[in-house]
Design goal:
Elements lengths: L2 H10 L3 E6 L6 E5 L1 H14 L5 E6 L5 H16 L3 E7 L8 H14 L4 E10 L2 E8 L1
Parallel strand pairs: 3-4
Antiparallel strand pairs: 1-2, 4-6, 5-6
Length: 136
């Protein structure tokens, strides 16, 4: 269709003539409301899934079964595409032996298998140790 005819049709319908593909011969165009099109594009971008950071709290004296349950939840969070933040708080005199807390984090790393990356290695910050794990 000639360009002048396409422009006339778009003008009659109070719409816009938009070039979709300029690389082909002849160029491909659409007649549509450009404002509505831009609105739909922005709506699609906001509907994209955002990555959440799910937090798991553990204790220094956590039992094996409880640790396995926490690891199962961490694995579920990673499979959903979210990050997992593991936090261990120390109360009272527990802060004297932070190496026991690090051993728990080592156990967690051994129990976790699959596609994940450690974004933040376990490190002591005040009275807690924090580690962040993200899916690949």
């Amino acid at each position: 269709m000639p360009l002048s005819d396409a422009l006339k049709i778009a003008d009659e319908r109070s719409l816009d003539l938009i070039e979709v593909a300029s690389n082909v011969n002849p160029p491909v165009c659409k007649i549509l409301d450009f404002g509505k099109y831009r609105y739909q594009l922005s709506k699609k971008q906001t509907q994209r899934k955002t990555i959440e950071v799910k937090e798991i709290k553990i204790r220094q004296q956590i039992t094996e079964h409880d640790l396995e349950l926490k690891v199962k939840n961490i694995r579920r969070f990673l499979d959903e595409g979210n990050k997992a933040k593991i936090t261990m708080f120390f109360r009272g005199r527990e802060i004297i032996r932070p190496e026991l807390g690090m051993k728990v984090f080592e156990k967690i790393q051994k129990l976790l298998t699959g596609k994940f990356t450690i974004e933040q290695i376990p490190k002591l910050e005040g009275n807690h140790i924090t580690m962040v794990i993200a899916p690949k």
